[in-house]
Amino acid sequence: MSFGSDDLVDDIMRTAPHTIRVFLAFRMACVGCPIATFHTVDDACREHGIDREKFLAALVDRVPA
């Protein structure tokens, strides 16, 4: 499974619920946020001041083998 900066935050959490821990670890308040249905990973990282590439790498690392 791969994730991109244009993926919607809500879509990621719904299709890969194991990634919710990554959002929480990065202190992103996206879980349960109504804006998550409109925000892309890029938007969310920019809003929270998080390095997008590090965040995407953490998402990929969370994918079960």
Description:
This is DUF1858 domain-containing protein. This protein is 49% helix and 0% strand. With 65 residues, the protein is mainly α. It has one domain. The longest helix has 11 residues. It is globular and about 30 Å long. The mean pLDDT is 93.
Summarize it.
The protein has helices at about 10-15, 20-25, 40-50, 50-60. It is mainly α.
| Distance from first to last alpha carbon | 10 Å
Low-confidence stretches: none
Order of helices and strands: HHHH
Q: How many strand segments?
A: 0
Q: What count of structural domains?
A: 1
Helix/strand/pairing class, anyone? mainly alpha
Number of helices: 4
- The best one-word shape is globular
Domain DUF1858: 6-55
Protein name: DUF1858 domain-containing protein
Observed structural traits:
mainly alpha; 65 residues; DUF1858; DUF1858 domain-containing protein; ScdA-like_N_sf; CHP03980_redox-disulphide; single chain; 4 helices
List the helices and strands and how they pair.
Layout: H1 9-15, H2 20-25, H3 41-48, H4 52-62
